[in-house]
Fold this sequence. Notes:
This protein is mainly alpha-helical. The protein has a domain at 46-72. 46% of the residues lie in helices and 0% in strands. The protein contains two helices and no strands. The protein has helices spanning 30-43, 47-65. The chain is extended, with a radius of gyration of 18 Å.
Amino acid sequence: MAKKKATPHRLRAKKPVAKHKRQVGIMLSPTAQENLIEIAESHGISKSTLVELLIRQSFRRYQESGEEYELI
């Protein structure tokens, strides 16, 4: 069976990126990274989507709390 030629990177179709989203970098401990991967995979979503959902959920709780929001 003949091998397929790899498509050059510049010719590959790019995934559309939402115009209103921006790429950011974060650093996580190995444990936090493992947890992120496990939760994202169990829900069938990307790590990026999970982080955004968690931030939005936390922010809603912060807004609804009406008092000082404790992270821990």
